[in-house]
Amino acid sequence: SGRVEFRDVRFAYDPERPILKGVSFEVPAGKTVAIVGPSGAGKSTISRLLFRFYDVQSGNILIDGQEIGAVTQDSLRAAIGMVPQDTVLFNDTIAYNIRYGRVDAAPEEVRQAADLAQIGAFIQRLPDGYDTTVGERGLKLSGGEKQRVAIARTILKAPPILILDEATSALDSHTEREIQSALDLVSKGRTTIVIAHRLSTIVSADEIIVLKDGQIAERGRHAALLAER
Ligand code: ADP
Ligand code: ADP
């Protein structure tokens, strides 16, 4: 389960300025679609519409064939996980931040998710570095480490659908490779929509959608898109 479908979706924040002018695509269950396009093209808007932060003007958004308008906010949030570009953390332990999406999780589960995301060593720290076990201040979490917290949270939540908003330039190339492997781990077998900036994602995606002026300008697999040029 977890098939996502956009059918001729039209949307504008301001009626004078349409952002999506009839966008249709499908992400089969367990597959990955990468969305690329210039800044302002409407990529993040697609993720906000899937969460139903806004309603579409016309067209349909469906999950497993069901209109998202007919799904409760709670079940939408349970079905969709998000690893945003910039993770905002609560001023509480990393363990608390990881279990936020699933408060019923046992401490061992939180620990496992943290280990998989490679932040197992930090879980008793606060985002500012304060270590609650030894009562001392350590290093503040870096941007990459904050992203790992979001990844650990998503591993624990295990949603059928995942939205990844890849950061453009915040990470150095070593961190980027490490984050990429953690992201590969969490997206494996899940329906994934990536707002893609990394070449590795684009190469491995099942489909790439190029969004331009509110419409899909091109679509296909990486090799096919390159062959057209
Ligand atoms: P992308 O993710 O491709 O960079 P966005 O989906 O964030 O693009 O934004 C698409 C367009 O919609 C941009 O021109 C942006 O300025 C505009 N926009 C985004 N959010 C809002 C909003 N809440 N109200 C009005 N305009 C918005
Ligand atoms: P942007 O790319 O401009 O940061 P997004 O479209 O990625 O915006 O997300 C919109 C906002 O919703 C972000 O602040 C994001 O952290 C937040 N968000 C993501 N997932 C959820 C969720 N499950 N419930 C509530 N808010 C969420």
List the helices and strands and how they pair.
Layout: E1 4-11, E2 20-27, E3 32-36, H1 43-50, E4 58-63, E5 66-67, H2 73-79, E6 80-83, H3 94-99, H4 107-116, E7 130-131, E8 136-137, H5 143-157, E9 161-165, H6 173-187, E10 191-195, H7 199-204, E11 207-212, E12 215-220, H8 222-228
Helix pairs in contact: 4-5, 5-6
Family: Belongs to the ABC transporter superfamily.
Subcellular location: Cell membrane
Domain ABC transporter: 4-229
Considering the chains and any ligands shown, give keywords for the structure.
alpha/beta, six-stranded mixed beta sheet, 8 helices, binds adenosine-5'-diphosphate, 229 residues
Q: Could you explain the architecture of this structure?
A:
The chain is an alpha/beta fold and 229 residues long. It contains 8 helices and 12 strands. The protein has helices at residues 43-50, 73-79, 94-99, 107-116, 143-157, 173-187, 199-204, 222-228, and strands at residues 4-11, 20-27, 32-36, 58-63, 66-67, 80-83, 130-131, 136-137, 161-165, 191-195, 207-212, 215-220. The strands form 3 sheets. Strands 6-9-10-3-11-12 form a 6-stranded mixed β-sheet. It has a 4-stranded antiparallel β-sheet with strand order 2-1-4-5, with helices on one face. Strands 7-8 form a two-stranded antiparallel sheet. Bound molecules: adenosine-5'-diphosphate (ADP) (2 copies). It comes from Mesorhizobium marinum. Belongs to the ABC transporter superfamily. It is found in: Cell membrane.
Q: How many β-strand runs?
A: 12
Radius of gyration: 18 Å
End-to-end distance: 35 Å
The main pleated sheet reads as: 6 strands, mixed
- Percentage of residues assigned to helices: 25-40%
Domain ABC transporter: 4-229
Organism: Mesorhizobium marinum
Family: Belongs to the ABC transporter superfamily.
Protein name: ABC transporter ATP-binding protein/permease
